Amino acid sequence: MTRAISVISALNGARILVTRPAAQAEKLCNLIEQHGGVPIRFPTLEIVQTQPDPDLLAQAAASDWLIFTSSNAVDFAIKAFGGKMPALRTFKVAAVGAATATALRQSGWPVDCVPASDFSSEGLLAEPDLQTIAGMRCMIVRGVGGREKLAESLRSRGAEAVYLEVYSRRQPSADRENLRADIALGRLDAVTITSVEALQNLLAMLDAESTVLLKSILLVVMSERIGQAAENFGFKQIAVSEQPTDAAILETLTTLLNGENSGRSN
């Protein structure tokens, strides 16, 4: 895997597959277009609202910590709470990453804890505020079936950790013929992936021949964990962005597609 660091430069017409959910893809697509690239929209995840347990919703205000794992968690939690978050502020609020923290603040909530740079469960768990939490009740607001790392670690520190699952992810229906043609004819210069599940779905949505060809195309991912999964799947060119943000993904794309690679590789 390669970690790239460079000043942003033009994409020179590069065709880049964007696999984010449709509602969240436009910022990255716009950045690609603004820098001379051609985004190919192909969502491999669809985000849908779930109906959380009413008892859990009622317990939110009684928690010591509400921990949000994504901006989706913020958006769908607001819907679950009837359009606004609980008014009683007796708890603290944590966000796994910068985008999640921004979504919370835009909703009128102060954020008490967010990682400075490592926007992940591991980064949040390293924050001083979450070291001494024995006896505290932590409600993790997330999608159905997320990682267990956060809850397991909080419990190991003596906290009570419960989930409030406010959305679910599923593989969308999509016209795959254009993508198969792009892959077969070598019309893709790079693929962007923002979660392991998105990568799994992309592979599941393609035929065997397309999958073999796909694994030779430059793959830009948002974390080492996703990069390791891609390596296990057999991808040959994997780049990890410096941060899990659209701007960092763009920087990695422009660096590598202009042949300005620097950093480490596996």
For the biggest sheet, the summary is: 6 strands, parallel
The chain-level structural class is alpha/beta
- Could you tell me how far the N terminus lies from the C terminus, measured between alpha carbons in angstroms? 5 Å
Tell me, briefly, the overall form.
elongated
What share of residues are in beta strands? Answer: 15-25%
**Quaternary organisation of the protein chains:** single chain
Q: How many separate helices?
A: 11
CATH class of the largest domain: Alpha Beta
How would you portray this structure in words?
By secondary structure, this protein is α/β, with parallel strands linked by helices. The protein has helices spanning 26-34, 54-59, 71-80, 98-106, 121-125, 149-156, 177-184, 196-204, 208-214, 224-233, 246-257; strands spanning 2-3, 15-18, 38-41, 46-49, 65-68, 92-95, 137-143, 160-170, 190-193, 218-221, 238-240. The strands form two sheets. The chain has a six-stranded parallel sheet with strand order 1-11-10-9-2-3, with helices on both faces. It is elongated, with a radius of gyration of 19 Å. Residues 2-8 and 261-266 have low confidence and may be disordered.
Features:
single chain; 266 residues; alpha/beta; Rossmann fold; 6-stranded parallel sheet; 5-stranded mixed sheet; 11 helices; disordered N terminus
Helix and strand arrangement:
Elements: E1 2-3, E2 15-18, H1 26-34, E3 38-41, E4 46-49, H2 54-59, E5 65-68, H3 71-80, E6 92-95, H4 98-106, H5 121-125, E7 137-143, H6 149-156, E8 160-170, H7 177-184, E9 190-193, H8 196-204, H9 208-214, E10 218-221, H10 224-233, E11 238-240, H11 246-257
Parallel strand pairs: 1-11, 2-3, 2-9, 5-6, 5-7, 7-8, 9-10, 10-11
Antiparallel strand pairs: 4-8
